[in-house]
Request: fold
Amino acid sequence: MSQILNCFLVDDDPDDREIFALALHDINHSYKCTTAKNGVEALEKLSKDQAFLPDFIFLDLNMPKLSGKNCLKKIRENSRLLQVPVIIYSTSSYENDIEETRQLGATHYLVKPASISYLSELLFAIFDGQEMPFLLGFER
Reply:
C-alpha cells in the first residue's frame, strides 16, 4: 500500500468521525479522509465535484436528512461510482439492515467496533484488499 488512499466518511456523529480518524492514523499509512455529516451533503460532494473520486466510501446508516440506505441507493445509481467500494459503518447489527444493504450494493458491512485498535486492523485489511466476509467488526 504505497499510494495515498482517499477515504470518504459519511457520518453525522462527530465522535465517530474522530474515532475513525484516530484509527486511520494508527494504520501509519498515507491517506486523505474527507467527511460529510449526512447523506445529502455526501451526494452533493460526489455529484458536484467531478474531480473527487474516493477509493473507499464509509457510510453510516442512521443519519438525518437522508438515511444511509437511501444514500447507498443513490451512490450505486451513479455510474462514476460503481467501482468504488462502499462499506456500511454502523452501530446497527440488525440482520435486516445487513441484508438490505448487501442487496443495495454495499461491499462490506462494518459494525462499529468498541476499540480503535480493532477498527485500525479492520481498516488495514480493507485497504490491503484482503479477502474478508461481508459482515465485519464483531470483537474476537
About this structure: The chain has a mean pLDDT of 90. The first helix runs from residue 14 to 27. Residues 9-127 form a domain with the Rossmann fold fold (CATH 3.40.50.2300).
